[in-house]
Amino acid sequence: MKNSTCEALDLDTLPGISQLVCLDEVVSTQLVGRELAAEGSSEKTLVLAECQTGGRGRMGREWESARGGLYMTLLLRPESGIRFLPDLSVLSGEAVAETISSLYGIKTRVKKPNDVYAFSPRRDKWLKISGIITESASINTSSSWLLLGVGVNLNNPLKLDTAVSVKTITGKPVSREEFLKEFFRTFWLRYSAWEYSSRSKS
Length: 202
What we know:
alpha+beta; seven-stranded mixed beta sheet; about 30% strand; globular
């Protein structure tokens, strides 16, 4: 695990984030997030990495994590019951899809429970552009912490022909920092509504 400065980012530019951990190369941001959660790190701690050597998606599938993409894990401590946690994957995917569409004018759709697809005009098909993964530790029926992992293909090269990046569709590199700011503006609105609804149903 190597440190990175993330010079273009600070807490003032990321809505709702309490602590920012920027790293260069990690096995996965989820592993780092798990360690931080176990150590008692504050809620809304964000782990960002330039690349991952062992990124994993749902059901242990490999997630390509070359430099240029967005790889992050957000530590949350929701009061919601664990039966509501699957909804968070869909909610997060919707926030990613909305961010990609609003910033870059790309058509997106969410494939439940945890993938986001983008339409590639050049290839005339829908291709995977983002994946979401959640994991939690619970006490009785309540979650003591939750890790939200998000991977987005922004400028990174891809080997799989079933995936696509924002850069490939738009033909130009995009700013990771701009994406993060817009994503969190969208995400926190959805997350607050989800928390409120989940508590009222518990």
